[in-house]
């Protein structure tokens, strides 16, 4: 008889043999065995499920490990430098474009072309040193094996070896000296041209670029660029000559061995090109992150009093450390890539030695080579591989320099401000009649935000005009347009009925005295700060007179060295800086005097005195 009992979700089937005697109709299947079997099956299923679950977890862990391993292997995602990692806000108008080693070298050559004789002497010395050094392994092996045959040949080879070493030392010294001088010339000219290009830009350029970014270009980037001629190109050329000479010698000795060595060098060169491209891209990221870190440091140090008052030292440290972490991450990948390059070199270098010994030994046993020839071959094979490695090592450094040069040359290529590059009219006398005719303006960095719209204003000579308005209503913008720091979007400004855009801007600015809301002082003595920008030679008495008119003479004389005291923004109060700036403006004896809240930091007595003397 077959009975089936179902309980819950578990089904249990029992097979019971029929007895000889009939069973009573009230026979039931016992419950206890059913529960025990069900519990046993559940436990077994749980155990099996646990085994499969643990196996699945182990498989997942193994898959994760394999994926991580795949990411860090060459070509994996860990090595990728995504564009999203670039520095925040670090583009502006000076965004870099692609650059090749040839174009970068061409630009650098134009910077040192006036002193080309230094480079030519350096290359001539390089050729002499390379030719002398390439003969040393041949004479070294010949000297060793000639000692077995007699002293005369040995001493002759030894003398030639000494002479070659002396020539090599002299030429190498001249080479290093000339390329070192070329290196200094290049970094000096690069910084001069770059700084001149930066100074000749419109003010709108400085609204988009940051101080830290520009100083980073002038500092570390120019220094990196200067390595190209004095270091990278120098060593690449030397090792290229030595490598070609070694290869020719190897092919003459034994072309089968030479071809094997050449194949190894070709493999090394392929790795070199891949590594060089990676280093070039990584160098651009390192350049951006360094500039961003400099931006933060420059900003925090400049505003250190605000940082200290608001207790945000930890926040600023984290902001600075964020860029350092990004820089570390890129530098770490560069270091690991360099480690892979060195690993390839060592592997291929020792492989060449093993192949040379095996094939060379067989050739000696067959009488095709002598022991002396094999020794020379091994020496030149090592020379060739090491030359290839040095070329690759300096090629990666060259690519880093090319990557760093892109933004430097991009800044150099920016067109100068049209104001400074063109000449205009010079009036016989500046009367000072100023007219704003339907002037509209929006800042270039915010073209959709109108600041002025159809402004019409006329200012006459020999009158004092005060502009009053809400903060942000455009008072300082009107002044900036008069100083021609910006050009109107629409309309025009007339000075003595002549459009301001047609006047010689240098001539016009020499006849204007200007004091801004927050005057800044240069780190120089007080007298030099007052004389700053004056278009004529002035005596010390004139400087003192301007200081007295600005109510600054008394506090200047109380300084340790009087007018010879070195000052800057951090050493004087706001009112003292304003009075020195007013003295600077008055010393020019300007036809137009513009004061943009220039007395906001003065006390009532000082302000009254300055207004009386300057009016």
From TrEMBL:
<dbReference type="InterPro" id="IPR017871">
    <property type="entry name" value="ABC_transporter-like_CS"/>
</dbReference>
<keyword id="KW-0812">Transmembrane</keyword>
<dbReference type="GO" id="GO:0016887">
    <property type="term" value="F:ATP hydrolysis activity"/>
</dbReference>
<dbReference type="Pfam" id="PF00664">
    <property type="entry name" value="ABC_membrane"/>
</dbReference>
<protein>
    <recommendedName>
        <fullName>ABC transmembrane type-1 domain-containing protein</fullName>
    </recommendedName>
</protein>
<dbReference type="Pfam" id="PF00005">
    <property type="entry name" value="ABC_tran"/>
</dbReference>
<feature type="domain" description="ABC transmembrane type-1">
    <location>
        <begin position="120"/>
        <end position="400"/>
    </location>
</feature>
<feature type="domain" description="ABC transporter">
    <location>
        <begin position="434"/>
        <end position="614"/>
    </location>
</feature>
<feature type="transmembrane region" description="Helical">
    <location>
        <begin position="160"/>
        <end position="186"/>
    </location>
</feature>
<feature type="transmembrane region" description="Helical">
    <location>
        <begin position="117"/>
        <end position="140"/>
    </location>
</feature>
<dbReference type="InterPro" id="IPR003593">
    <property type="entry name" value="AAA+_ATPase"/>
</dbReference>
<keyword id="KW-1133">Transmembrane helix</keyword>
<keyword id="KW-0732">Signal</keyword>
<feature type="signal peptide">
    <location>
        <begin position="1"/>
        <end position="20"/>
    </location>
</feature>
<dbReference type="GO" id="GO:0005524">
    <property type="term" value="F:ATP binding"/>
</dbReference>
<dbReference type="GO" id="GO:0015421">
    <property type="term" value="F:ABC-type oligopeptide transporter activity"/>
</dbReference>
<feature type="transmembrane region" description="Helical">
    <location>
        <begin position="247"/>
        <end position="274"/>
    </location>
</feature>
<keyword id="KW-0472">Membrane</keyword>
<dbReference type="InterPro" id="IPR039421">
    <property type="entry name" value="Type_1_exporter"/>
</dbReference>
<dbReference type="InterPro" id="IPR011527">
    <property type="entry name" value="ABC1_TM_dom"/>
</dbReference>
<dbReference type="InterPro" id="IPR003439">
    <property type="entry name" value="ABC_transporter-like_ATP-bd"/>
</dbReference>
<dbReference type="GO" id="GO:0016020">
    <property type="term" value="C:membrane"/>
</dbReference>
């Amino acid at each position: 008889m077959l009975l089936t009992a179902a309980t819950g979700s578990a089904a249990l089937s029992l097979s019971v043999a029929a007895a000889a005697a009939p069973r009573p109709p009230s026979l039931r299947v016992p419950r206890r065995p059913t529960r025990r079997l069900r519990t046993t099956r559940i436990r077994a299923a749980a155990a099996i499920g646990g085994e499969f679950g643990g196996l699945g977890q182990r498989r997942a862990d193994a898959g994760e490990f394999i994926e991580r391993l795949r990411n860090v292997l060459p070509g994996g995602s860990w090595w990728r430098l995504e564009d999203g990692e670039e520095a925040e806000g670090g583009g502006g108008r000076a965004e870099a474009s692609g650059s090749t080693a040839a174009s970068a070298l061409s630009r650098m050559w134009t910077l040192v072309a006036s002193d080309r004789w230094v480079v030519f002497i350096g290359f001539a010395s390089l050729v002499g040193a390379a030719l002398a050094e390439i003969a040393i392994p041949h004479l070294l092996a010949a000297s060793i094996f000639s000692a077995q045959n007699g002293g005369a040949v040995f001493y002759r080879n030894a003398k030639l070896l000494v002479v070659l070493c002396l020539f090599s030392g002299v030429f190498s010294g001249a080479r290093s000296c000339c390329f070192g001088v070329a290196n200094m010339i290049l970094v000096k000219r690069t910084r001069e041209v770059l700084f001149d290009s930066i100074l000749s830009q419109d003010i709108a350029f400085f609204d988009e670029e940051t101080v830290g970014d520009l100083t980073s270009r002038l500092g570390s980037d120019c220094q990196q660029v200067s390595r190209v001629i004095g270091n990278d190109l120098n060593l690449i050329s030397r090792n290229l000559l030595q490598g070609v000479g070694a290869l020719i010698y190897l092919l003459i000795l034994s072309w089968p061995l030479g071809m094997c060595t050449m194949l190894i060098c070709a493999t090394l060169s392929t790795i070199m090109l891949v590594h060089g491209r990676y280093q070039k891209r990584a160098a651009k990221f390192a350049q951006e992150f360094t500039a961003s870190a400099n931006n933060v440091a420059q900003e925090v140090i400049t505003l250190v009093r605000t940082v200290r008052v608001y207790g945000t030292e930890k926040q600023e440290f984290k902001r600075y450390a964020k860029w350092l972490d990004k820089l570390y991450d890129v530098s770490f990948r560069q270091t690991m890539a360099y480690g892979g390059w060195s690993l390839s070199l060592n592997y291929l270098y020792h492989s060449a030695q093993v192949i040379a010994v095996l094939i060379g030994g067989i050739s000696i046993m067959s009488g095709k080579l002598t022991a002396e020839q094999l020794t020379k071959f091994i020496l030149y094979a090592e020379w060739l591989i090491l030359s290839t490695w040095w070329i690759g090592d300096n090629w990666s450094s060259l690519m880093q320099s090319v990557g760093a040069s892109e933004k430097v040359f991009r800044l150099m290529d920016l067109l100068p401000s049209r104001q400074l590059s063109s000449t205009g009219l010079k009036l016989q006398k500046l009367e000072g009649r100023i007219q704003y005719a339907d002037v509209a303006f929006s800042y270039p960095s915010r073209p959709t935000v109108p600041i002025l719209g159809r402004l019409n204003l006329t200012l006459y000579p020999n009158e004092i005009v005060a502009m009053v308005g809400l903060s942000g209503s455009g008072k300082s913008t009107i002044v900036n347009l008069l100083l021609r720091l910006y050009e109107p979007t629409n309309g025009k400004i007339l000075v003595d009925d002549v459009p301001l855009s047609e006047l010689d801007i240098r001539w016009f600015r020499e006849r204007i005295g200007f004091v801004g809301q927050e005057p800044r002082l240069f780190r120089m003595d007080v007298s030099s700060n007052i004389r700053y920008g004056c278009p004529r030679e002035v005596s010390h008495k004139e400087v003192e007179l301007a200081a007295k008119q600005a109510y600054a003479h008394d506090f200047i004389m109380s300084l340790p060295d009087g007018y010879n005291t070195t000052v800057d923004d951090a050493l004087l109060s706001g009112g003292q800086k304003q009075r020195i700036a007013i003295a600077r403006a008055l010393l020019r004896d300007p036809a137009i005097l513009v004061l943009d809240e220039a007395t906001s930091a003065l006390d009532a007595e000082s302000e009254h005195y300055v207004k009386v003397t300057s009016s």
